[in-house]
Specification:
- It is built from three helices and four strands; from the N terminus they run E-H-E-E-H-E-H.
- The chain is α+β, with helices and mostly antiparallel strands and 104 residues long.
- A four-stranded mixed sheet has the order 1-4-3-2.
- Strand 3, helix 2 and strand 4 form a beta-alpha-beta unit.
- Helix 1 packs across helix 2.
- The two termini are 26 Å apart.
């Protein structure tokens, strides 16, 4: 597992307060960040069929799944880190021979 933290970014989630309205706004922000990171990954896909789960909570993006190489794992983390609302990455992507075989 790799955990990467970035410099201070304003946390849009903390600006919305508590209660139902705050929870709804937090969910909108989470969804927008996950959508943005996913779109960036789709725009620069790995060289093989790979399923990567992207989730977000309080500025931290978590990447889960299997990839075919350490280079794909690192590149995926770099792409996710480019999103302006991402404050950190938890990279739990596993490099597996099975993922490499599926790419052939």
């Amino acid at each position: 597992m790799s955990i990467v933290a970035f410099g201070p970014h304003p946390d849009p989630i903390k600006e919305h307060g508590d209660g139902v309205a705050g929870a709804i706004e937090k969910q909108k922000v989470n969804t927008a960040i996950v959508t943005g990171v996913t779109a960036a990954l789709l725009a620069d896909p790995p060289p093989c069929l790979t399923i990567i789960e992207v989730s977000h909570n309080e500025g931290i993006v978590t990447l889960k799944g299997e990839v075919g190489s350490a280079q794909v794992r690192a590149k995926t983390e770099q792409i996710a880190a480019r999103h302006p609302e991402v404050n950190g990455i938890v990279n739990t992507l596993h490099v597996t021979p099975r993922a490499r075989r599926q790419a052939k």
